[in-house]
Amino acid sequence: MICLGNLSEEKLHEIASAFAEAFLSEDGIVYRCMDQKTAVIYFETVLEEYMRIHALYALSEREEGYIVWHHKKAGMPWYRDIVLMIRFIRRLPPLVTQKMILIRKDWQDYTLAHANDRDYIDVSLIAVKKEYQGTGCLRKLLAEPFAEAERCACACILDTDSSLKAAKYMHVGMQCEKDAVLESGVHMYTMRYPQI
Hints:
By secondary structure, the protein is of the alpha+beta class. 47% of the residues lie in helices and 21% in strands. The chain contains eight helices and seven strands, in the order E-H-H-H-E-E-H-H-H-E-H-E-H-E-E. Helix 3 (36-52) packs antiparallel against helix 4. The two termini are 27 Å apart. The model has no long low-confidence stretch (mean pLDDT 92).
């Protein structure tokens, strides 16, 4: 696993495009709110923030896939969330931001559900490039966060809005901790490792 930082605009665009392709391939929040161009801008904005905390990784030098993960306390400071929202407002069409908020409004994500946990491993984003899907890359991307969760005796947690992705996460050893169909019709899942 290679930690990615100080990326050129071109490289950041390439990685954001890989995330956009992965998230636009299935029904979910990104699919319902964004076109390809807007999704790339969204992921560029998010990934810039995750690079600041050294949480963006490529699977290998071939960059078959990417993952954003960190310990609970090593995540973005609260004020960076505000900066991120301001950057979304500046960079994304207002209707996109509004749609995203409305779609997720009745979802309590794992960061709130696990607020009292001493620690957990937060997997914020994960994407395997199309040409590497079905080759075991998802398992390899999650191996390091899973090992860190075991080492620290804490959970590794992520949210997904895709039933197909939830099934893939279960296949590699996670369990569904919470699932709900939101008022918007989007099905959200909180996945965790190790299973309880």
